[in-house]
Fold this sequence. Notes:
By secondary structure, the protein is of the alpha+beta class. Helices cover 27% and strands 37% of the residues. The strands form 2 sheets. It has an 8-stranded antiparallel β-barrel with strand order 3-4-5-6-7-8-9-10. Helix 3 (60-70) packs across helix 4 (75-88).
Amino acid sequence: DGAASNSPSRLLHRGWDFWFQSVSTAVQFFSPTCFNLVVSDHGGRAACRRSLMVCSAVDPTETIRSCALSRQAEGAAVVSAMEEVEAQGKQIGAIPTERFTGTFDLVFSSTLVKVPFINGYMPTKEVITWDLDSKQMSLDIEILPFLPKVLVQGTNLQWDESKSKATYTIKNKEDKPPSEWVFFYADEEVLVGRSSVTGLNVLRRL
């Protein structure tokens, strides 16, 4: 029995099993949602049909969060992710008011994606505050550290939670139509919406 258990065919079979389990574990670890491996045993010989799909699909919200938190996501991919989330309505229900109000760093704008070397990311430091108590939107723009900040103010800020929509009028431009934002994704750190002026935007809570 001992000799049989150590026969070349049995050792080869054990080696195959070890290799197969190692590959299976690795593939499931790196791509658990895209793994499809079918094994059948016929006539005492292991036969393997492998269908290892290389998974290119990424959760669009992860691309958006990578953009907001690390500024590492590629610009075109961020725009595609935002469009997908917006179209599919992945945000269940309305954006809660508490996830809209507060101060945010304006990280990314789709209007800048085609600007050379920018890749959609804001080249300036822009901090936007939504204050429903004072009904004001304020946008502080820092072009260079040694230059005075540019302040853009919006008055009569209105928030419709049922539509996840904010509207306001730019100060000293009351003759212009109100600016409008419609938000379609929000979590504890990230807020994403479409502006009537600047297109799709990613904001990071400060």
